[in-house]
Structure formats: C-alpha cells, structure tokens
Amino acid sequence: MRREALALACLLGCLVATTTRAEAQQVAYAASAGAGLDSATQAAVSREIARARTLGIPVEPLVAKVREGRLKRAPGARIQSAVEHLVERLTAARAALGLESSAEEVIAGADAIAAGADGASLRALRAASTKPIAGPIGTLAQLLASGVEQRKAVDMIVALLRRNAAPSQVLALGNLVESDVASGLRANESATFRLRGIEGSLGATGADAAPAFPGVGGLQTGKPPAAKRRP
Predict the structure, then answer these.
(1) Model's pTM, two decimal places?
(2) pLDDT class for 33, splitting at 50, 70, 90?
C-alpha cells in the first residue's frame, strides 16, 4: 500500500510539473478529493482524471463525483465505476458538440446523455444556434428526465433556438414541464402545451421583448391539460 501511495504521489508530481499553474491547481484539487480512498481506488481515479485532462475534457465533474461518493460512503469500486462512466459521457458529449465547445457545454452534454440523450440530439442543438448552448442542453436533459420523448424534446428546443427565444424562455420550458409532470400530467402533453405558449409569445412580441408572462419566461401559464386519473 505504501508503494502504491508513493507511485501515486510521483504520478501527480509529474502532472504538476508539466502543466500550467491553473492546471496544476486542478491536479492538486483532484488529489485532495481522492484523500481517504483506498490506494487502489485512489490510483484508478487519478488515472481517469489524468486521462480526462489529456483528452481536453473538464475534470471538475470528476472531482465532484469522487467527493459525492465519499460523502455517501460508497464502496471504492462503485466510485471508480462512476468516475469511469462519467469520463465516457464527457468524452461522448465533447465529440458530439465539437472540440471548440466550452466546459459548461460539455458538462451539460454529459448530463443530457445520462438522462437519455444521444450524440445526434446534441449535434442538432449545436447546429441550431451559434450562441452558447449549455442552457438549452440543460433543458433537453430536464425534458428527458421528465419523460418527454427525445425527438420531440429536441425538435421543440431547436424550434425555439431558431426563433431566437431568450435563454430564460428555453429554461422555463423545462421547469414548467417538470412541474406539470410532478402534478400528474403527461410529459408530452405538457411539453406541447407549454411550447404553444412560448411560440405565441415570440410571434406577438419578438424574442428580445419582455416576457408576456413575467416570472416564467413568456410561457403559457393557463391551465395545462388535466392530469389523467389512475384507475
């Protein structure tokens, strides 16, 4: 165990020596996150973080995942597996969104993939706007988690982006659908209703105007379809 810990320290030392100051701080932060893990898990996690840096994907979510596992007292093997799968999602998100994507977009993309999105969906959002799309990707993840069909969710967000909907309007779409579903409404029906409201607002006032319904980004606030009663 002592030999493994020494090897890990040497690995981290080499990483610090070959990075910029900001990157070195990330490595040191990652090393502190692994403190308290068994040596095998710590070494495996450190390798994944080093690999992520080499691939150019954000390491902060990986460090957060390790800390989450430690707080939950998860077994080392489970923490290692969670980190490895997160690296895979981050890598897939970056590949779909492009090498010039921001860290925020890549992280949001990984969350969307975890919610059920595929690379084609992320590429569709990227192609629909020249502006940063971390927010719209987050809305995609939220809609999928609420139960909206992937193709329907992507088409809705793309339609809003192409009409230059304000970020708050795109965000509100996901929030309101999530709230509707929590109240017992069907996800696809709620999404259709909420989209109709925002499209009407865009047609009447333009994307840059103040929301027609303050507090919800211009989305329709009337009563959505009644919840289906379960037998």
Answers:
(1) 0.77
(2) low
